[in-house]
Amino acid sequence: MSSVRNSGIDKETEIFSKRLERHHDELRWLYMELYGNDSMFAELCDCMNQFYLERKKELKKRDRDREADQGWYKKNDMLGMMFYIDNFAGNMKGVESRLDYIEKCNVNYIHLMPFLDTVEGRSDGGYAVKDFRKVQEKLGSMEDLESLADACHKKGINVCMDFVMNHTSEEHEWARKARQGDGEYMSRYFFFDNGEEPAQYERTVPQVFPTTAPGNFTWLPEIGHYVMTSFYPYQWDLNYKNPRVFNEMMYNFLYLANRGIDIIRIDAVPYIWKELGTKCRNLPQVHTIVRMMRMIGEVVCPSVLLLGEVVMEPEKVVPYFGTVEKPECHMLYNVTTMATTWHTVATRDVRLLKRQLDIVNALPKEYVFLNYLRCHDDIGWGLDYGTLMLDGIGERSHKQYLNDYFQGYAGESNSRGELYNADPITGDARFCGTTASMCGVEKAGFEQDRQAMEKAIRLDVMLHAYMFMQSGIPVLYSGDEIGQVNDYTYKEDPLKAADSRYIHRGAMNWELAENIEKQGTVEDEIFNRLGELEQIRRTEKVFVSNADTWTIETWDQSILCIGRYCEGEKLLGLFNFSETDRTAWINETDGEYVDLISGRKMQAAGVDVPGYGFYYLKKM
Q1: What single DSSP character describes residue 43?
Q2: Which residues have CB under 8 Å from 602's CB, separation 6+?
Q3: What is the 3-state secondary structure (H, E, C) of 109-134?
């Protein structure tokens, strides 16, 4: 019996050793470049081995399967959904009980919004972590997380979570000890006993929240020090120049991976290295850290993907993918295209969006973007104003127009929502609202206008159809699949009232969700039409992430045309961003096409597209 056990241990040791050998030299070189500390590197390797040995056999099998199929997440069956656990189902056990519904949504990747231990009222939506190895009590326990992950895996569902690397809560164990004057723990943050150096940082470092949390430092009178706080005063920036910080955060990463997490979303990646005299954004050392994290994962838990939160234009986020030889993140968000999509809704002009998509489509097919219409956060208008100015559109005036439009004040808009972080001096602001409310579902429902509701649903479904045609993985925000509208009750909660982002973070309305079975309801129409699109995406090979994707000139400023091609199959998507009927003056003369929605055979030439309508035209 012992010989069988020993042979099993020997095999495990061999697997780990081979993986470590593949990366050891580069990992050590990068580590020593940053830290020059042999003993800390040796400790890191020893702990990696320990986390590997502690990894459950089911997860190790998952690792082996995905090592053998490294493009598993690039297939056309990937569809994500993000939600706050309490809003969706109360707690983790509640989420586990709702997995059948998630399956019904054709979703196989759920992003659980921040659930680690935090401080009520000073949590920034969960992004101020008090303990990286404890779940918020109201949401459950680590055992509940493991149970949920196991149940998800049995249904073929991947689990994603946020890993907040840049900072901790001021109530984290390290921060509490630092506040007591413990030098070892003070060195894990950025402390200064006078304002001279913080003032030097402030000269070059932009502010994240200039109106709600101005500045990048917080004064702590009880210890007579400033501490760096790039986000909110209760979020203390970690000092990654200290190897102890890097090692301990990697141990937290591996601990969470061993609980069954499949996708680790690295929050605020560009911020994690600070250097005086710079913007403290996107510094070379950030890429060193992410590259090391990728290698550590490939040694211990190779089935786990890294998703980087990098809020920049696609061509500027490309470095966070790394290179083919030295990859960093597996996936990144397509933030700018999301914002440009809503610009297109407000202007009925697809030209900027077409240019944006052309840039994304020209990038290497190895790069995988996550596409979405909206998320838990606000929508910032970080558009290509250089291009817009060529058409006489100024940045400040256009941002004003967009915010007015989506509040329902301009441009014959039917949208509803609220501004976030409005700056009266610069005129800048961000926008908050659910997809359905921005499409007019809320207004039409309030006014009991059936014709307006039909138009709002058409726009909502068209936007999802267009999102599914983009290159990458589509992600829904929970509630969008049933057309859930803005939730204004956040104003009644003193802990949320100051943060208008809670308007689109409302609790899942399960009573409305039951309407997906009631023909003619808004929920039924949106849910089942999206289901039809999702089924098409899963069955048509052109929707794989590495398919050829391009845009086609339609000679109508309101109609976007996207082409996809894979292994002899071709699909054209036509999307009308205007409420009026338009004609796409394309002329694809390679034969007959069939619309995958209606089954109607047609020519891909001079196509009439109804207001807010779309076609999926497949080459026959």
Answers
A1: H
A2: 592, 593, 594, 595, 617
A3: EEEECCCEECCCCCCHHHCCCCEEEE
Cβ(417)–Cβ(437) below 8 Å: yes
Model confidence at 209, pLDDT cuts 50, 70, 90, reads confident
> Mapped to the 3 state alphabet, what secondary structure does 81-95 carry?
EEECHHHHHCCHHHH
Rg (the chain; Cα; Å): 25
Tokens 């073929």 label which residue? 156
E-assigned strand segments in 49-208? 80-83, 109-112, 116-117, 131-135, 158-164, 167-169, 191-192
pLDDT tops 90 at residue 538: yes
Residue 236 structure tokens: 């203390």
Count how many residues are written for the chain: 620
The partner residues of 587 in beta bridges, in order of sequence, read 605
Beta-strand relationship, 191-192 and 601-609: unpaired
Q: Is 46 known to be catalytic?
A: no
Q: Which uninterrupted H or E stretch holds 12? A: helix 2-35
Look at phi and psi of residue 412 and say left if phi exceeds 0, alpha if psi is from -120 to 50, else beta: left
Q: Which of 124, 170, 237, 309 is catalytic?
A: 309
Q: Are 89 and 102 in contact (CB under 8 A)?
A: no
Within 205-263, residue ranges assigned H as helices are: 243-257
Q: Residue 59, CB half-sphere, CA atoms under 13 Å: how many?
A: 26
pLDDT at residue 9, rounded to an integer = 61
Structure tokens at 597: 């929605």
Does the annotation count 197 as an active-site position? no
* Residue pLDDT, tens place only, 410-435: 999 999 999 998 887 777 899 999 99
Contact between residue 483 and residue 437 where contact means Cβ atoms under 8 Å apart: no
Q: Given the DSSP bridges, would you call strands 217-220 and 225-228 parallel, antiparallel or unpaired?
A: antiparallel
The residue annotated as part of the active site, out of 86, 171, 267, 525, is 267
Residue 165: both structure tokens together: 């690397």
Q: Cβ distance 43 to 28 under 8 Å?
A: no
Residue 102 has pLDDT above 90, yes or no: yes
Query: How many angstroms from the chain centroid is the CA of residue 171?
Result: 26
Q: What SS3 state is found at 174?
A: helix
